Amino acid sequence: MTTTARPVPIRTDRLLLRAFELADGPARLAWQSRPDVARWLMRDPLDAVSVLVGIRRGQEGRLAEADDRLLLAVARLDDGVLVGEVSARLDDVGSGQVEVGWVFDPVHSGRGYATEAAAALVEELFSRHGAHRVFARLLEGNDASERLCRRLGMRREAHLRENELWRGEWTSELVYARLASDPVLGGAAGATTAAAVPGATTGAGAGESVADGPA
Ligand SMILES: CC(C)(COP(=O)(O)OP(=O)(O)OC[C@H]1O[C@@H](n2cnc3c(N)ncnc32)[C@H](O)[C@@H]1OP(=O)(O)O)[C@@H](O)C(=O)NCCC(=O)NCCS
Fold first, then answer.
1. How many Å lie between the centroid of ligand 1 and the Cα of residue 65?
2. Which residue among 74, 77, 158, 202 has the highest number of C-beta atoms inside a 10 angstrom radius?
3. Residue 209 has what pLDDT?
4. pLDDT score at 3
């Protein structure tokens, strides 16, 4: 796996994936403070301080050693409005295993932004960082996230039944993954994920889930 110290911005048809700035705090707080978002991340909603701490850590993000994390803000190209964030965590350097995550503002849901951004990130991890396997962990019942995984061409690899006790209730986890060698759904073998998703082209110039903690 080729590791780089800092991510470069990634441009798609509609979006720019870039490092967070401290000024993005209020925008990030808008989605990170929502209980209906935090429940899927198995934690409390973040407050303003936690949001800024996450941004600060994200600014130093890199993928070089095991458990290094990247956090990227996702902004609309046309007006600069932040719509969410994507993240990556280097799980294992030698075997190129990378976990990805995504958290988007429900205000902007249902327009394919999360798919477009996540596809570009996955493509970047394969093509630029040399990842071998990109995976996502999600709570069973997180249907929107599961559909997103499928749109990314990930395969369901595991259903870990009642593998964690959280706030007195058993939760189950799903693991979705995609290999660098996996063919694109409905496309030619060897093509990239991003190329399979409308609008998700990685520009040449170019989570809380895995950035601030476990998904
Ligand atoms: C998971 C999450 C990012 C998905 O958000 P989303 O809005 O469903 O995803 P997208 O932005 O990609 O939009 C996809 C939806 O828009 C529709 N859509 C509209 N235009 C589209 C386009 N141009 N391209 C793709 N999809 C489009 C799709 O059909 C899809 O709808 P469907 O899922 O009902 O079929 C969001 O629910 C979220 O942030 N959840 C909380 C955090 C979380 O669970 N994180 C993951 C922890 S592992």
1. 30
2. 74
3. 45
4. 63
pLDDT of 72 above 70: yes
Q: Which residues pair with 102 in a beta bridge?
A: 86
Atom 23 of ligand 1: nearest residue by CA position: 112
Q: Ligand 1 atom closest to Cα of 136? A: 48
Residue identified by tokens 């941004």 is 55
From atom 48 of ligand 1, which residue's Cα is the shortest distance away? 138
SS3 state at 43: coil
- Looking at the CA of residue 40, tell me the nearest atom of ligand 1: 44
Helix (H, G, I), strand (E, B) or coil at 98: strand
Torsional sign, CA 155, 159, 165, 167 = positive
Helices (H) and strands (E) in the chain, counts: 6, 8
Q: What is the mean pLDDT of residues 132-157?
A: 98
User: Which ligand 1 atom minimizes the distance to the CA of 113?
Assistant: 11
| Predicted confidence band of residue 4 (pLDDT cuts 50, 70, 90) | low
- Residue 126: pLDDT over 70: yes
- Ligand 1 interacting residues, C-beta cut-off 6 A: 37, 40-41, 101-104, 109-115, 136, 138, 142, 144-145, 147-148, 198-199, 209, 215
What is the pLDDT at residue 183? 82
Domain 10-212 carries which CATH code? 3.40.630.30
